[in-house]
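Intended use. Records like the one below are meant for learning the mapping from a protein sequence to its folded structure. Do not use them to infer anything beyond what is encoded.
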Amino acid sequence: MSEEKSLALLIAKWPEVVRDAAESFRPSLVAQHLYAVAKSFAAFYENAQVLNASPEDRAVRLSIIAAAALVLKNGLALIGIEAPEEM
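Structure written out for the chain above:
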């Protein structure tokens, strides 16, 4: 499976992870998922062309990047950690 697809699938699981963590009173589920998203994003970023990709691929990949950033920012906020603006 491509890094792009793996990351997209993890992003799609986010609402389920939040629900499961809340229902089971296990914030560690959020932390574990954020770690998986960050790891998957690193692999995606290392292997996927973004700016030099075709316009269609670029648009999709930029959307995936924005979604990953949103998941990470919101997830960190849920567990009481302020996300950095830049890395």
